[in-house]
Amino acid sequence: MKLKIALLPGDGIGPEVLQQALKVLDAISEKYHHTFEFITASIGAIAIEEFGVPLPDETLQICSKADAILFGAIGDPKYDNNPSAKVRPEQGLLKLRKNLGLFANIRPLTTYDSLIHTSNLKKEVIKGTDFVIYRELTSGIYFGEKKLSDDGNSAYDNCSYTAEEIDRIAHLAFKAASQRRKKLTLVDKANVLETSRLWRKRVLEISKEYPTIKLEFLFVDNAAMQLILNPKQFDIILTENMFGDILSDEASVISGSIGLLASASIGKHTALFEPIHGSYPEAKGKNIANPLAAVLSAAMLLEHFDLFDEAEDIRNAVEKSIDLNISTPDLNSTNHFSTSSVGNFLRDFILDEENTFYNKNNIDLGQSTII
Ligand code: IPM
Ligand code: MN
Q1: I need a surface site. Which of 253, 278, 304, 306 has the fewest CB within 10 A?
Q2: Annotation marks residue 249 as catalytic
Q3: DSSP single-letter state for residue 368
């Protein structure tokens, strides 16, 4: 298969984790004889420095023409700590999502038995947890009108949804539930918010087309609690933009590290794949960031094009690295591996599983395969 993939490394640890995803994709293309063409483009704080805007037109052009986009991370403390900054890196990602119509953000949460101990939660609570968050991505409070009054003393962010915006992601979520354990939980705040009441009405209506799916409603405050109390109850969680943002970070605690969570943002034409973690500026350039979320995002990209064996290869390599504790400090505090060493191991394992020699020194030297 031929695929044109736009690469947006972005800020902080983005470039270094994306580099590992690339190693893995190169290994897959070599093994399966695919042709992946990569085009790198600028976004985020780095684009502001170079071009004065967080999403240059050229980047948008490259992304619109690509079959898929692989994204690193966005954000810089320089802007986080300056509330009056008019131009912010995050605007680049939001504009990209909006312009490409990437309305459904899919965030799977899986647990790995050998990582159960790294979570702060109890083993019996989290073991076997497996759900997917369907987060609406191009509307709601993120994209409503916002304003700061002239005197700087009051501000608002408008939250609005149309039936059409709700329906299109609801259908995707119901379809996903039919392929899984057939349960869908709509998370909202329908006891307070008008938009949430519209979500309930539309989702209830749409559920009639999916009679085999058990539909449940949960208020977001309760959902935040249930995620920690009993995460196994969830199969598909469907929710609006900001609730999905918050709940997915919370959910990452279940898997042991936010550095494990990948996501796919599906749109009308193209699709974008990105780790859910941020730019982790403290770790930038230190070769310590966990590359697995970026690598698993690459696996989701392949699945999007029905390359299931290829995606499976990546997941197997990731699982192997976790089992063998070939992991970055977030998962392995005592005897950890660097970002690039984990990437080298994954690449070598994909290319030559049988002969991959698990020796820390060799992996560190980028020579994990000994034939
Ligand atoms: C995410 C991020 C973004 C969001 C930021 C960087 C704008 O937190 O993808 O979850 O809030 O959507
Ligand atoms: Mn987030």
Answers
A1: 306
A2: yes
A3: -
CA of 245 to the centre of ligand 1 (A): 7
The number of distinct structural domains making up the chain is 2
> Do residues 228 and 131 share a domain?
yes
Domain that holds residue 286: 1-103+267-371
Q: Is this prediction's pTM over 0.85?
A: yes
Q: What is the pLDDT of residues 11-26, one digit of tens each?
A: 999 999 999 999 999 9
Q: Is 73 in the pocket of ligand 1 (CB under 6 A)?
A: no
151 belongs to the catalytic site: no
Question: For residue 133, which of 213, 18, 246 has the smallest C-alpha distance?
Answer: 246
* pLDDT computed for residue 356 by the predictor: 73
Show which of 194, 222, 256 is a domain's final residue.
256
Pick the catalytic residue: 67, 235, 245, 313?
245
User: pLDDT by residue (tens digit) across 321-354?
Assistant: 999 999 999 999 899 999 999 999 999 999 998 7
Same domain membership, residue 14 and residue 83 = yes
Name the nearest CA neighbour of 300 among 323, 331, 275.
Answer: 275
Which residues, in sequence order, are bridge partners of residue 274? 263
Do 91 and 155 belong together in one domain? no
137 C-beta closer than 6 A to ligand 1? no
In angstroms, rounded to a whole number, what is the distance separating the alpha carbons of residues 99 and 296? 25
**CA 337/CA 333 separation, integer angstroms:** 9
- Residue 254 in this model has a pLDDT that exceeds 60: yes
- The CATH number covering residue 347 comes to 3.40.718.10
Examine the domain organization and report whether 226 and 146 are in the same domain.
yes
